[in-house]
UniProtKB/TrEMBL annotation:
<feature type="transmembrane region" description="Helical">
    <location>
        <begin position="342"/>
        <end position="360"/>
    </location>
</feature>
<keyword id="KW-0808">Transferase</keyword>
<feature type="transmembrane region" description="Helical">
    <location>
        <begin position="417"/>
        <end position="435"/>
    </location>
</feature>
<feature type="transmembrane region" description="Helical">
    <location>
        <begin position="380"/>
        <end position="405"/>
    </location>
</feature>
<dbReference type="GO" id="GO:0016740">
    <property type="term" value="F:transferase activity"/>
</dbReference>
<protein>
    <submittedName>
        <fullName>Glycosyl transferase</fullName>
    </submittedName>
</protein>
<feature type="transmembrane region" description="Helical">
    <location>
        <begin position="318"/>
        <end position="335"/>
    </location>
</feature>
<feature type="transmembrane region" description="Helical">
    <location>
        <begin position="193"/>
        <end position="210"/>
    </location>
</feature>
<keyword id="KW-0472">Membrane</keyword>
<feature type="transmembrane region" description="Helical">
    <location>
        <begin position="111"/>
        <end position="136"/>
    </location>
</feature>
<feature type="transmembrane region" description="Helical">
    <location>
        <begin position="23"/>
        <end position="44"/>
    </location>
</feature>
<keyword id="KW-0812">Transmembrane</keyword>
<feature type="transmembrane region" description="Helical">
    <location>
        <begin position="244"/>
        <end position="264"/>
    </location>
</feature>
<feature type="transmembrane region" description="Helical">
    <location>
        <begin position="216"/>
        <end position="232"/>
    </location>
</feature>
<keyword id="KW-1133">Transmembrane helix</keyword>
Amino acid sequence: MVEDRDEQVATEARQGFGGWRRFDLWVLLGFLALAVLVMIRLWIDPNGRVLDGNDDDHGIFLFMLAHGERVVFDGAPPFFESNLNAPVGVNMMANTAILALSLPFAPVTHFLGGGVTVALLITLGLAGTAAAWYWLLARHLVRSRRAAVIGAAWCGFAPAMIAHANGHVNFVNQYLVPFIVWQVLRLREPGRALRSGIPLGLLIVLQIFINEETLLFIALTLGVFVIAYTVLRPREVREVARRFLGGLAVAAGTALVLAGYPLWYQFFAAGNYHGQPFKPDEFVTDLLSVAAYPRAAVAGIEPVAERLSVSATEDNTFWGPFGLVMIIVAARMLWRSAAARAAVIAGLVLLIASFGPRLRVAGFHTPIPLPFALVSHVPVIDLVSVTRFAMVPATIAGILLALAADRIGEFSPARRRRFWIGMALALVPLFPKPLPVAQGDPLPEFLTAGLWRQYVPEGRTLVTVPLAEVTTGRTGQRWATLENLDFAVPRGYFMGPADPPADDTGSWKAPTRFTSDLLTEVQLTGRAAVLTGADRKRIDEDLGYWRVAVVVLVPQAPNVAALRATLVDALGQPRLVGGVEIWVVDGHPTE
């Protein structure tokens, strides 16, 4: 009876959104409630708190949102930002600019603050991703709504998704993925070259402006899937190959016309880079992590997860022991299906790729070589954090679990009981906990009251000490971005060339200068610098290069006394204005 009712609802859903019943609305509200629960600690004070799992990346997406606000409200160019890393600027296409999100949500950023937009986008990203997979599963792949809920909940709230919710706005907004996958699969149908090719091209363009890395994962996964399916069903593939390739050509042409210039800007305009600032074997998936629990789950053990993962944002596997068993069980149940087998093969290939060039076990790098070593330096592949390839098998696992849950009704009552017990043991321990947060340094009145405007004329910059940098100077960048980059700041946390033109390897910060190195050393050691006349001259040169009008000391900075003593030695005594000490580098406040 229940299965008959499920099939009836699935049939109604396939007829369009009007066929969706009240149950489907409750499912979507449940996804939203779960997403709010995950983000609840940030929602309490979104502009005052930061995600403790990765406050650096929380900060970089505040920057992306501030840039979007400037594009909409100040007419700034969309692919370049001049008010970070002044006077050089930042190639936004070479960064994860999330323009498809930052531009529509610019009014939220402008009126409520970038912190609210971060919380909103991560919440909607988690819930929206689950909702999109629910649509695809319930409407096209399974008969049982229960199976659709299981698969969608896994795809939207899997350990990998919860981990990336620690600041990675781009990775949690994956609601276009199911639609892209479905449009690709529909290309095999007669008469779909244009009807599916053009929408697919438009979806690809939108995904480019959310997260290109996810788009690369989709392309690699579908490529492996098609190759595997071709081997398993060669005759069937030959029959549809021409129209499938024709539809892909239409999609590629559509995407190229619309995104050709932005992609050229990304790879060839000023600020482009090649490769990552780390070796491919540094950020890889640990073999034991596939059966461990993530730190963000109710069954998670923090020290174990730390040992098996590169960071709180990269728990890309962590399916738990029962979860791993149920994924294998689901694959075995579906093995007669060529499509399921091809999906399993694609997931295994991407999982093995995520292990990197050498196998890592329990936190130790072994000498065992892996296939990824052969492709680790291929252009575009060398821009990927290797462990993130494991996000693909995580999503495929959700689809397999949904398909298996849909099919279990065909088995005996005893087999069904064992299956559902296994699913409970797999899913309950992975239930996510609210993500941890930390209190950010409050913005001083000097910024919030606009007092800085008296000291920073057009074309000049405001420097915070510590300088805006990844890890050591996150407060300075956070202050600037929460003010929507109304003033320009040197340096910052972004991706750009390490030392152009000599070295265009990707770097998380601007090329070092004497003053940046000096102040970083003071901050880290707690010892004030003893400056010579030559040192002061080099500091003056750097301040001139950065076009600095005023220097602001962050009161809560680590080793602030040593930083202050160094600034006094270099620039003289400060003024106390708006709750902070400042040094006017050149000129005076306007009257």
